[in-house]
Amino acid sequence: MTLPTPLSGVNQPLKGILLIVTATALFSSHDALSKYLSGFYPVVMVVWARYLVHTVLMAGIFLPQSGLRVLRSKRPLLQVLRAICLLGSGLFFTYGLLFIPLAENTAVNFLAPLLVAALSGPLLGETVTRGQWLAVVCGFIGVVIIIHPGGELFTPAVLLPMAAALCFSCYQILTRKLSAYDSPTTSNFFAGLFNVLVMSALVPFFWQTPTLTHGLQMLALGSLGMTAHLLLTQSFRVAAPALLAPFSYCQIVFSGILGWLLFDHTPDLASRVGIAIICASGLAAAWQQRRSRT
């Protein structure tokens, strides 16, 4: 996700750190709940419920302020492509949760920032340093270690979180391009509404009437995602991105804890090493990007 620039004159680092750590905890809870619900209902239905609740909440917040003009985009085709990338990321990631443990699935998905660094050269015309390329290579080495041949994760299913990472990196790049034309509110609401419409056309073919408990959990799913996004956005309005970026990797830690508590899974040594390499590579790429801009 492309993050907003901190507001002029605002510098509250501790508040920013608290907000982003809370956001990562909510994202991890959202993913854990997605994994749980996907054990009872088709992934298409789970993803549809998430986008439906998310978009209804966004409409309640932003439509009274801006009306339908919030959907007016100067680059509608790019907005559609961005929405498709976001939808692909969500579907691939959630399908991956059916086969890959939560922490490992999340860690592989964190290849996205590295892929953004690699793709920003040909797609955005930005300079990609040797250090950034090295970080990308090391990140993929981390994935190979996690899915080491002969291990239980060495299956075609590992391609799902990798595809999710690729889709999300394209989504981030398109977000960066669209930031020159449309507001973040327009981009986010456009993507949410588009994906609700697409998934609403598909969900009748996968429909299973949820129980009351599961229906409430689907409501919570969308609420968790929406709240996490709002907290994440607010964190980067009160503190510098360079300070906050490392704390985004708390999501992998929270996912590991929830995977252990809820699904009785603890990453093995190879997975822990691979996760550490991916985190280190992402931090190194962010540091290299910061240096190249100073």
TrEMBL record:
GO terms for cellular component: membrane. The keyword Membrane applies. Keywords: Membrane, Transmembrane, Transmembrane helix. InterPro entries: EamA_dom, EmrE-like. Residues 15-147, 157-281 form the EamA domain. Pfam families: EamA (PF00892). The keyword Cell inner membrane does not apply. The chain crosses the membrane at residues 48-68, 80-100, 106-124, 131-147, 153-174, 186-207, 213-232, 244-263, 269-287. It comes from the Bacteria. This is DMT family transporter. It comes from Pseudomonas fragi.
